[in-house]
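Session log. Operator J.P. requested a structure for one protein chain; no other inputs attached. Running the standard single-chain path with token output.
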Amino acid sequence: MKGGKSKTETRSSKLSVAKKPAKAAGRGKAAAKDPNKPKRPASAFFVFMEDFRQTYKKDHPNNKSVAAVGKAGGEKWKSLSDAEKAPFVAKADKRKVEYEKTMKAYNKKLEEGPKEDEEESDKSVSEVNDEDDADDGSDEEDDD
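Structure written below.
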């Protein structure tokens, strides 16, 4: 065809799909989680579920389904009145107060920064191992 587009050119332009970048622009690599950070306290429902799981296991010893326990616990929680939920709410509030205290101490410790004993050297472990390998070169045998 003179001066016109071939069929393959028109098809490829119609069927081309804009490819997305491999990683989303807004999301970077997440920071590593600190194992020393205190865990968040359980809500009143989860405090209730701790007790409910034990009683449910006693009543239904052959049940192996986690979903069945969760569903039964959810239904029981919904049927409880506010007065019946009160002890679990109180326990949850107590745990929350303890959590806030530990978080304040944790944040204070973070602000102070690492102590001199805890600081790591500038060299990575692989660099240190490479230096050791260079020194130990005399131990290797030649296979001539």
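Operator note: DSSP finds five helices and no strands in the chain.
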